[in-house]
Amino acid sequence: MLDSRKTFPTIDKEKDVRSIVPYDQSIQKSAEDLLFQAARESDEEKAKEKWKKFRQQIEDENSSSNQVKTLINSLDNHKRWAPLHYAVEANNKYVFQQLTSGNKTYRSDININGGNGENVLHIAAESDKIWTNKSNTVHENASEILTLDSAVEQTLCNLPDIVQNMLNLRADVNDRDIEGRTPLHLAVQNSRYEYARALIKLGAEILTTSMFKESVLHCMFSSSQTNSQKLEELIDDILSRLDDTQKQKFIQMTTLDNHNALGYALCNSAVNESILFKLFIDKNHIPDNQLLVAFDTLAHHAQDLTEDMKYNLTSLLNKMNIKHHTMFEHLPHILCRHNNSSLLTWFHDEFIKINLRNSVRPVDFNRFDSGGYTLLLTAVFYNAKDCVDVILKQASYSRQYLSARNNNDENVLHLCAKHSVHDDLFNIIWNTLSDVYQEKMELVLQRDIEEKTPLQVAARFANENMCQHLSNYAPLTDDFKREAAREASAAGHLNILEIIFAYDKETKQSRLQPAKIQNISRTGDKYEHTCLHFAAEKGYDDIVKFFLATTTIQVDCLDKRRRTPLHLACENGHIKVVQLLLQANASTTLRNAHVYNCLEIAITHQRKDIVQELFKHSAWKEMMRNAQPIENTEAFDTPMRKLIRYMPDMAVWLINNKFTRIVGGPGEKVYKTIYDYEFYEDMFKVKHWYSPNPDSNFELPTCTSLWRTRGVEAIHTCWCCCHPTGSMDCMLSDDKVFIINDKSLIPKHEDMDMKSKAAVE
């Protein structure tokens, strides 16, 4: 309930209710915020008002001179600029004078750098507000203005007053930003020609380059807003300050990616013939290789040539025609690299006329370059469809060059496949060949330096459109399709295999005849690698599933090293492929050329998940019953021994889970633990595991053979029911031979002991 004794202010209805709320004081701004707001203001009256608020805030906070100095030279978090930088960008002459006046408390360092290393001269070069609203005033701090000669003063008179003041206050004209650019770089790049001339007269270095090695000339021609007359005047001014050696160095400077200034000049519509002549033609400053780089720059940046650009290009080429004629045959290839069809058309229509007027042979569009490429092959290499259209439509182009091959024996179809050209480009080539059946067949059947056909290359690079056309091409036999199927399997392109086998996704069956399917899929390459080998080796389980479900391919096919697809999957650790092959009843006991089965391959490559999967298989004991003789010994290696060496943790698991069996339980009549010693005491079985053939040439395990191979001291007795013979040979069958030491309690045979002592003596 409200207290009736409390009184509330009355509201004057004629007064705006919003005036009751002190909005201006709701958020208290710091001195730093007020300072940057004043510096960013481009309106002079508002700038004065905000500067006044800043000064008042400083007084209210009782800030010391050092605190104010730190504040004046601090950088913000937005652009990493100081207040002086913002004042210059906004052409805020009032705040600029306050920050550079005689009052040392508020004075900023004229050469203070921003976060990107720029100073006020860099910012002035890029500020549109300075150059769109020029005015000339006298700086208040007249005591620090430089004493300049009349020529410099005349140049400064044409500059905005804020720029004059910066230069008079000794702003560093050679300061570099984080990219290594000086104010001169940015001045010419933004077409501030009078500013650039003033910087040069005040000592700006002309031959300096950026971190990317861009020269002043590069920046000059990269400007999009260029005045030809003023540009030429600046170039004359620069050249007049350089000797011949410096001029050549200035003109021949290249960027880190080897681009020269000529290429930039040819792309600039404001560059006239006079400028080109002074810089590049008169003294032949540009070497031949740099001319090609210049045309590469032109082809990349100038897709549409203006009439002035065409005129300049014609003038340049016409003056260099005789000396650089061998270079001209490279130019069309450069144009195709950037698919610049307009420049290629101009080159074909206009430049041949120049050659004819000068009595020089015309450029041959069919000539091979150093790599064996014709112009058409180059255009296909760079996927330049527009240039291919231009080339095929030229009357000078000979159809015989459709079958041309480069130094790698690749024809136009190989290149279409290898570089995955657009479908439209391939269709143009294919339709052009359709009129000449014999020519098309030769191209389809040709092999490159790697003995690959175009269909194989298309399958490797998953070019569906090409595979569709080539697979349906009548003269193409199953042998070619088989090769392509292997390429697609090795690259993991299921979509290409579906095209080759005419796979119907609705019925999930191939539309080919069973005999044809078998003929394409069953045969391997020169190493007997089948499609299934390639897919299993790379782990393409979808392709393995495709072959197992669609074709009648043999799951246990062997290559020349007796490796099955299961061997390769185990070796490379592809568990999903292993599971698919096991489900398809792949043999687990087939051995490769090293007599290793799939389990041993997985163990030696430490594929734990695959080893566990194989031990789940019902034939795990058969996999364990394998052996290989150890060279120069009579010993054998087995899966169990490999498991102990490579995967001891799995060996422990195997002993506990596979070799140990518990019958019954506590409290039951029968309760015992049964141990399987088959893979512990395997010395009399390993030879049979290695070669179960009774006709093998291996020596039977007699005491004599053991004595001879291991030494007399290694064997003290045999614990068996042998009968004495004249040769003292103890024939062993299923009886075990125990190798014991001197501490053994097993009784010794007297005869054997006597023989041992005699042998030692």
TrEMBL record:
Gene3D superfamilies: Ankyrin repeat-containing domain (1.25.40.20). ANK repeats lie at residues 179-211, 561-593. It comes from the Eukaryota. PROSITE patterns: ANK_REP_REGION, ANK_REPEAT. Pfam families: Ank_2 (PF12796), Ank_4 (PF13637). InterPro entries: Ankyrin_rpt, Ankyrin_rpt-contain_sf. This is Uncharacterized protein. Keywords: ANK repeat, Repeat.
